[in-house]
């Protein structure tokens, strides 16, 4: 016999990445929102740049030099291009450009950008406005204002240096003139020679200062050369609507994936079968298709009560899924050895765990087993009122249990009609004062031991594991556990806790049955637990209104 719960092979990195990507695709809302945001942003930028025009001019900065054609001239190496860029962006240049263009200073200063191409002495002026001609006029005004300002600074520097040299030259000229007068009045040749020597020294200094002044006045003060004047652009400066939509879509997809990834990281719920398997250490036995509302209503109308058993019209797919789960369980060595099965949910309440227990019982009966379904939910028992009972003799293997402590087991086994699958027996639950004592009593143990008979099986339905300790108390006696959960409504931490509790009780999780959220129609029908028409109200247990008939219907020998 094959053991279907063998240890699964560890997934490789590629499988994990594919699984994570599939999980990201579940957050379609975030992905669509990111794409829409990107497209809207791209469209906005495209339309906002549709009326923007950019004009550009380029200026090659040069230093003042006396002979620019002289070999080895290196005056331009003394230019600090970073300082020149800051000068071009200064308020002095902006004020002069605004006076030239006759435009507001703030608007012109806002439109200007000055950059420097690497390894060049070129300043690139860029101006963006809503008018093509205005952009060209403004960028040319900035270029002219910068060159004029730089030339004015150079001339001012030259003038200051000339004045400094002239201030040194004037006293020397006066002193030389005085020596000339003294030489003319000298009476001895020795005195005259001394005066002539001093006068020659002063003349050399005068010649040097005059040369410096002449050199400064001969400098070429051209601040730079406009190598590219600004012209009116013929088209808007924006990249265009198709390009911006494409970029916006790409950015939107990236934002959507980022948002989905963040949501996935902080999402405590499980989002795939692989996560359920890793958390519980057991395979997924099956995934129940969602039952349509009209199918649930049809089953309720046909059965006279909320139907848990599948198999009617529209439920064939659901019935086949239950049969597949039962088939996998029968080929599990751990279940085949003892044939005791505990069906539980992690948290909450709902019809699905009860439906799984009932339909697995019907599937086992269809396989030829004698099945006993035990409702171990002694806090809110309801199975007897939700399954169709039939008259008949119980099979010989079904021994009548003695009344347990607190009134459960109550010595009652109700035959249940499973349609074409046959029938199975139900031991309905009953409200008791001490649930733990009733579940661990000797009569309850003898009831679970019915599975030891050849060709028999016991299916036990218990309350949620994390809500009450009832399921943990039963796990050690039943040993095989099937967990029923909605992967979108259960947390990974809850599944890991369920696995720890069941393992500590000495039982094994044989597998997991997944389902989607139950329709609202089924929830509404589950609340209408009206008495069966064929069971008189006087013969119902007054302690459990709306539940199974009392022992008068099936008296205990």
Q: What general outline do the C-alpha atoms trace?
A: rod-shaped
How many DSSP-defined strands? 12
Averaged pLDDT: 78
Helices and strands: which structural class?
alpha/beta
Q: In which range does the helix fraction lie? A: 40-55%
Low-confidence stretches: 1-9, 393-405, 519-557
Strand content: 5-15%
**H/E element order:** HHEHHHEEHHEHHEHHHEHEEEHHEHEHEH
Give the strand order of the largest sheet, numbering strands 1, 2, ... along the chain: 5-12-11-6-10-7-9-8
Instruction: Report the sheet with the most strands, covering strand number, pairing sense and barrel closure.
Output: 8 strands, mixed
Compute the separation of the termini in Å: 40 Å
Radius of gyration, in Å, reads 49 Å
Oligomer state equals single chain
Query: How many alpha or pi helices?
Result: 18
What does this molecule look like?
The protein is α/β, with parallel strands linked by helices. The protein has 18 helices and twelve strands. An eight-stranded mixed beta sheet has the order 5-12-11-6-10-7-9-8, sandwiched between helices. It has a four-stranded antiparallel beta sheet with strand order 2-3-1-4. It is rod-shaped and about 160 Å long.
């Amino acid at each position: 016999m094959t053991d279907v719960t063998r240890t699964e092979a560890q997934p490789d990195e590629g499988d994990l990445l594919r699984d994570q990507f599939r999980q990201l695709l579940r957050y379609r809302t975030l992905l669509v929102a990111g794409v829409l945001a990107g497209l809207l942003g791209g469209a906005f930028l495209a339309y906002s740049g549709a009326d923007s025009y950019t004009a550009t001019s380029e200026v090659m900065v040069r230093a003042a030099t006396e002979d620019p054609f002289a070999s080895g001239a290196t005056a331009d190496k003394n230019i600090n291009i970073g300082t020149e860029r800051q000068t071009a962006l200064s308020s002095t240049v902006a004020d002069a450009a605004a006076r030239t263009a006759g435009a507001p200073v703030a608007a012109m200063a806002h439109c200007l950008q000055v950059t420097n191409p690497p390894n060049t002495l070129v300043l690139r002026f860029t101006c963006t406005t809503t008018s093509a001609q205005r952009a060209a006029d403004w960028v040319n005004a900035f270029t002219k204002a910068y060159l004029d300002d730089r030339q004015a600074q150079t001339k001012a520097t030259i003038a200051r240096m000339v004045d400094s040299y002239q201030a040194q030259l004037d006293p020397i000229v006066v002193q030389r003139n005085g020596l000339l007068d003294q030489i003319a009045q000298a009476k001895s040749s020795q005195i005259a020679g001394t005066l002539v020597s001093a006068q020659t020294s002063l003349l050399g200094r005068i010649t040097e200062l005059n040369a410096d002044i002449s050199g400064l006045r001969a400098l070429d003060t051209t601040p730079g050369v406009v190598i590219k004047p600004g012209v009116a652009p013929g088209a808007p400066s924006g990249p265009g609507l198709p390009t911006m939509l494409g970029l916006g879509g790409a950015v939107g997809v990236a934002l959507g994936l980022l948002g989905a990834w963040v949501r996935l990281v902080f999402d405590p719920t499980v989002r795939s079968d692989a996560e359920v398997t890793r958390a519980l250490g057991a395979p997924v036995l099956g995934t129940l298709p969602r039952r349509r509302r009209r199918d649930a209503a049809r089953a309720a109308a046909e059965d006279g009560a909320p139907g848990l058993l599948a198999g009617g019209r529209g439920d064939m797919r659901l019935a086949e899924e239950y049969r597949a789960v039962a088939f996998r369980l029968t080929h599990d060595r751990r279940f085949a050895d003892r044939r005791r099965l505990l069906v539980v949910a992690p948290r909450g309440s709902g019809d699905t765990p009860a439906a799984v227990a009932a339909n697995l019982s019907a599937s086992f009966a269809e396989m030829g087993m004698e099945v006993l379904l035990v409702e171990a939910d002694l806090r809110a028992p309801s199975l007897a009122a939700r399954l169709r009972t039939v008259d008949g003799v119980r099979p010989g293997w079904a021994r009548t249990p003695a009344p347990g402590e607190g009134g459960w087991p109550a010595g009652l086994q109700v035959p249940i009609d499973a349609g074409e699958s046959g029938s199975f027996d139900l031991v309905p639950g009953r409200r008791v004062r001490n649930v733990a004592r009733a579940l661990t009593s000797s009569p309850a143990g003898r009831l679970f031991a019915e599975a030891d008979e050849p060709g028999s099986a016991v299916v036990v339905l218990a309350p949620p594991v994390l809500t009450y300790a009832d399921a943990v108390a039963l796990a050690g006696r039943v040993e095989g556990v099937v967990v029923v959960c909605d992967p979108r409504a259960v947390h990974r931490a809850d599944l890991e806790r369920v696995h720890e509790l069941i393992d500590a009780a000495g039982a094994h999780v044989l597998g997991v049955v997944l389902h989607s959220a139950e329709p609202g129609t089924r929830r509404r029908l589950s609340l209408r637990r009206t008495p069966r028409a064929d069971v008189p109200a006087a013969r119902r247990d007054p302690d459990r209104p709306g539940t199974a008939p009392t022992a008068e219907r099936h008296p205990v020998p």
